[in-house]
Write a structure and sequence with these properties.
heterotrimer; A mainly alpha; B mainly alpha; C mainly alpha; A: mainly alpha; 2 domains; 14 helices; globular; C: mainly alpha; Four Helix Bundle (Hemerythrin (Met), subunit A)
Chain lengths: 395, 489, 169
């Protein structure tokens, strides 16, 4: 047993398997969160029927997707039509392998990690274009064309913003980037007298565009293009695209968190008296509060249905249990690091959903204008300014 | 200044910096400072100003070499070398850019194309040429070549609305890319042989090997094919007539003068440098190429009706003559190459100035018929054309004779009698087709009298080229001294 | 052993992809096989320990170049072009040329023997220094000049595309 645990492949394999196994579920629940949040922004309730407060909705959706007929249009390029979603999913999951959840908890740390993630997102675009083309239909083709133009355009600004971060961190390895932030005593988003914040904003905007989210969701603009490049897809293949989309949101969130928000580090990582409040009390309070809300909901549900109340109570208990884990000193360093990483990624996802609920979609030419005429020059200026300031500070 | 950018490096780089700086500045001025059509002449003024600054940088290098008595200045760890060879070619490029800039203004007005990008590209192309003449490192040479070539691809296709121009740009781009590929392939083998990209070290490595070492031969063949493509020597000349005909006439002039001179600088650098020790291998090869080039260039020119096409074939045949100088390879031969390039550049540009002036809003004016009766319509341009054509044919007392004289002399000196005879024979053929144009200008009935598209710039360009073409022939001393520069080692 | 195995595997991918690029009738399929071929090359970079080139190869060539190729293919109606008679009916000549050149190179390399190439000695990385740092050091010191000229070259390329695409004023 000891030999197995200490084998160099043990941790990577475990983490990899856990990611692959859990990810579909996580993605499904992110969708639930998104629907609930959007409903809240629009003063609605959102999914309420399946499970208490729609808690089982994702599972029902997944079942539906799995059982649906996989329709392939007669005029489609069959091979490519089959293969395209695979590219998207594969690249998104490969990028996961490079995210450093904590200092130890990651599949692999390579010295060009950030570049590999960018490379994977670049290859992932192929999945969208090929999918759109292979369907041999108008809407998908238009969606695919838009997406390729959009992704290539915003990749430039994204890359420049990443360069700012890499210059400050002095490494392309994801783990070393976080360690550099510990050494510099500051999250990179606030480095260089606030100049890095420009880079961070640019990153945020182009990250939203890279993941095809509103207000940059032109590749699948529902009102104009039906569903964009996915129009002809159904069933499991559609599900794969769906997974890839959410995976890329999490990956890009993870990249942003790693590069600009200190990765697994808690806020103020160098202030030692904050250790206990931030690493123990805060997670505990966070989970206990969630548990408390669940229990209250459960009590209210008791009036309608017994098993719904029970399920809600069980959820609350699980949340409380997770919170109590933070009191165990053994699991502590890794657990709190993981908590902070996921918490920050969660914030990013919340932000993305919030944007979706707030802004209208851009027109296509506006999108290109923003990308090339504003973001790219601004990003170049940010690179120059950060390079100069960083150099002056170093000497 | 760090150890990787010393003051010597800066001193050597100044002309290139000036060219790049003014090239970019013109692009920006076009957009921000002088957007109005009537302000365009300022862009031309900035081109001239940029060339003046470049000239100052070159002049300082020239003075430094002359006063210190050093054979060369090396910079960037041997990547760039300013020696007589580099200086000579850079002076030639400077003159070429100036003339091209002057003759282009009116032409662009007539074609209704952008000025800013055009002048910017001239300077940037010259920047590439600077690295071609100065570079002594394969990477720098290659990137310089591509910089120049890319500018030319764009300029050849500059008349976007004309199919002819698009087609020419496409052909030039495809064949240019292909030849670059061959060239790089040869370079990779040279790097494999020597483990270095510096020409000096490659020369040593090649000299240490057997003359017929298979890898050296392979590198030689691929590199020389790539280079011969660039100088449009037969059988790699196919792109030249189409590109020359379709390109805007001023660009054709630039292509025939600047691009060709720069490519020859590169070719001579390679053959007189790393490949010098394998002369036994490449001499027969180049002799065959030179004879073929002379044959195809001269014979195909006979039937051409389009002046630009005719001049394209004539420029192919001139490449053959320049190669002959390289084949002779003694001091007279290399000096002959220098003199020939110097002379060729001016006479060919002079001819193109007149063709450019023939283009008017409703008249393409490129056929030999369009020149009919030019002596009655505008005697000045007819005289310029006459001088340039006489020079192209190599008739004394024009400069063309001087160039051919040195080439033939070197051939005789090194015992290539047969080659000399063939070359002289082809002069006779050349006289025939050049005189077709002369006859059209002087003898043929004048067509409808349309004024030529003349302007101050065009007149200056015409006067400059004609004076130099005639002047070098009549009073060659200072120019021979200039051409002595590359030979001094 | 593993290195050799992977080398041949990637070489096979690169070459096989390349052959399929020129033999497919469908332009989109050709472009996709180009992706495969480029991935093979990227794999070779990885084997050589050039991680940076590996990543950049994928980002630039697949994420940039092939993507734009696909973009153009989809914008231009190639179906018609594919149905028309093709000009490139020179398989025999092309094959012969390739064979002659290949044989020539093989002969020269064989005659040259294993000591034909003077291999540059690889520079070992300093402590805590990766491929990226080494490359950056060399690029901004010894190869500073070519690097800067290359940036000028790219600038010209940008100007060119803008000139070609600009509206007539």
């Amino acid at each position: 047993m000891q030999a197995i645990i200490e084998h160099p492949w043990f941790l990577p394999l475990t983490v990899g398997i856990v990611i692959i196994a859990l990810f579909p579920l996580v993605a499904a629940y992110i969708v639930l969160a998104e629907r609930k949040l959007l409903a809240d922004f629009q003063v609605r309730l959102g999914p309420m029927r399946v499970g208490p407060h729609g808690l089982l909705q994702p599972i029902a959706d997944a079942l539906k997707l799995l059982l649906k007929e996989d329709v392939i249009p007669a005029a489609a390029d069959r091979g490519l039509f089959w293969f395209a979603p695979v590219i998207s999913t594969w690249t998104a999951l490969t990028a996961f392998a490079l995210l450093p959840f904590t200092e130890q908890l990651h599949v692999v740390d390579v010295n060009v990690g950030l570049l590999v993630i960018v490379a994977m997102s670049a290859v992932g675009v192929l999945g969208i274009i090929i999918g759109g083309w292979a369907a041999n239909s108008h809407y998908p083709l238009l969606g695919a064309l838009r997406s390729s133009a959009q992704l290539v355009s915003y990749e430039v600004a994204l890359g420049l913003a990443l360069i700012c971060g890499v210059m400050s961190a002095g490494s392309l390895s994801m783990v070393e980037i976080v360690q550099a932030q510990l050494e510099r005593r500051v999250w990179l988003a606030f480095d260089n007298y606030g100049l890095m914040f420009i880079a961070f904003i640019i990153f945020l905007i182009s990250a939203i565009a890279e993941t095809n989210r509103l207000p940059f969701d032109l590749p699948e603009a529902e009102s104009e293009l039906v569903a964009g490049f996915m129009t002809e897809y159904s069933g499991l293949r559609w599900g794969l695209y769906f997974l890839a989309e959410y995976a890329s949101i999490i990956v890009i969130g993870g990249v942003g968190v790693t590069l600009f928000w200190g990765g697994w580090l808690r806020p103020f990582p160098n202030v030692s008296w904050l250790e206990v409040p931030l690493n123990v009390v805060f997670p505990l309070a966070f989970f206990l509060l969630a548990a408390l809300i669940s229990f209250r909901l459960s009590r209210r549900l008791l009036r309608f249905s017994r098993w719904r109340a029970l399920l809600m109570a069980a959820t609350g208990a699980a949340l409380a249990g997770v919170g109590l884990l933070f009191l165990l000193p053994v699991a502590h360093p890794t657990l709190s690091a993981l908590f902070w990483f996921l918490f920050k990624v969660g914030l990013f996802i919340y932000f993305v959903i919030w944007i979706r609920g707030t802004f209208p979609r851009f027109r296509y030419d506006q999108l290109m204008d923003i990308g090339w005429k504003y973001l790219v020059p601004l990003a170049m200026a940010a690179v120059l300014a950060n390079a100069l300031v960083g150099m002056l500070r170093a000497t | 200044m760090s150890q990787f950018y010393t003051s010597t490096d800066h001193f050597v780089l100044v002309p290139a910096i000036m060219l790049a700086l003014f090239g970019c500045a013109i692009l920006l001025f076009d957009f921000f400072l002088f957007p109005e059509p009537r302000q365009r002449k300022w862009l031309l003024a900035f081109l001239v100003l940029g060339l003046v600054f470049t000239g100052v940088g070159l002049w300082r290098q020239h003075r430094f070499l002359a006063e210190s008595g050093l054979p060369q200045i090396t910079a960037f760890q041997g990547t760039l070398t300013v020696d007589g060879f580099a200086l000579f070619f850079n002076w030639v490029f400077l003159a070429v850019s100036l003339v091209i800039g002057l003759m282009s203004y009116r032409y662009l007005e007539i074609e209704g194309e952008h000025h800013g990008e055009y002048y910017g590209l001239i300077l940037l192309a010259q920047c590439g040429m600077y690295f071609l003449a100065t570079g002594t490192d394969l990477i720098t040479l290659f990137i310089g070549l591509e910089l120049m070539a890319l500018c030319f691809y764009i300029m050849v296709g500059f008349l976007r609305t004309q199919k002819r121009s698009n087609e020419a740009a496409m052909k030039y781009l495809l064949l240019g890319a292909f030849s670059s590929g061959l060239l790089v392939y040869g370079f990779s083998i040279l790097y494999g042989i020597s483990g270095s990209t510096k020409l000096s070290e490659i020369s040593l490595a090649v000299a240490n090997r057997d003359t017929w070492d298979p890898l050296v031969v392979l590198a030689l063949i691929t590199t020389s094919v790539g280079l011969l493509f660039k100088v449009s020597a037969a059988p790699f000349h196919m792109w030249a007539p189409d590109a020359y005909e379709g390109a805007p006439t001023t660009v054709t002039a630039f292509l025939a003068s600047g691009s060709k001179a720069a490519s020859f600088a590169f070719l001579v650098r390679m053959f007189a440098g790393p490949f010098e020790s394998t002369r036994a291998v490449w001499e027969p090869l180049l002799i065959a190429v030179a004879i073929l080039t002379l044959t195809i260039g001269n014979l195909a020119a006979i039937t051409q009706e389009n002046v630009k096409r005719l001049l394209a074939y004539s420029s192919i045949s001139h490449a053959g003559y320049i190669l002959l100088g390289l084949i002779a390879g003694n001091e007279t031969g290399l000096k002959g190459v220098a003199v020939y390039i110097l002379v060729y550049v001016f006479m060919t540009m002079g001819a193109f100035v007149v063709v450019t002036a023939l283009r008017r809003a409703h008249l393409i004016g490129e056929n030999i018929d369009d020149l009919a009766g030019l002596i009655h319509r505008s005697p000045g341009y007819a005289i310029v054309m006459l001088v340039c054509l006489l020079s192209l044919a190599g008739i004394p007392p024009t400069a063309g004779f001087l160039g051919k004289y040195y080439i033939f002399l070197s051939l005789v000196q090194t015992g290539h009698y047969l080659l000399a005879v063939i070359a002289v024979l082809y002069v006779a053929v050349a006289v025939y087709y050049y005189f077709r144009i002369v006859r059209a200008m002087f003898v043929a009935e004048a067509g409808p009298s349309v004024a030529l598209a003349s302007s101050f710039g065009v007149r200056v360009a015409a006067a400059l080229t004609a004076t130099l073409t005639l002047g070098i022939g009549i009073y060659p001393e200072p120019f021979l001294q200039l051409a002595q520069l590359p030979v001094m080692r | 052993m593993w290195n050799a195995l992977f080398f041949y595997l990637f070489a096979l991918i690169a070459l096989g992809g390349g052959v399929l690029v020129i033999t497919r009738r469908n332009a989109v399929h050709s472009a996709l096989w180009l992706v495969v071929s480029l991935l093979g090359v990227a794999g070779e970079f990885l084997l050589l320990g050039a991680e940076f080139l590996f990543a950049v190869q994928i980002i630039l060539y697949i994420g940039g170049v092939v993507l734009l190729i696909l973009f153009v293919i989809m914008l231009v109606n190639l179906d018609q072009a594919a149905r028309m008679r093709q000009f490139n009916r020179q398989w025999a000549i092309a094959g012969l040329c390739a064979l002659v050149v290949g044989a020539e190179i093989a002969y020269f390399v064989w005659r040259g023997g294993p000591q034909a190439f003077q291999l540059a000695t690889p520079v070992s990385a300093g402590p805590g220094e990766g491929n990226v740092e080494q490359l950056a050091d060399v690029l901004f010191s010894r190869y500073l000049l070519p690097f800067e000229i290359a940036s000028l070259l790219l600038l010209v390329a940008v100007i060119g595309s803008v000139v070609m695409a600009k509206k007539r004023s």
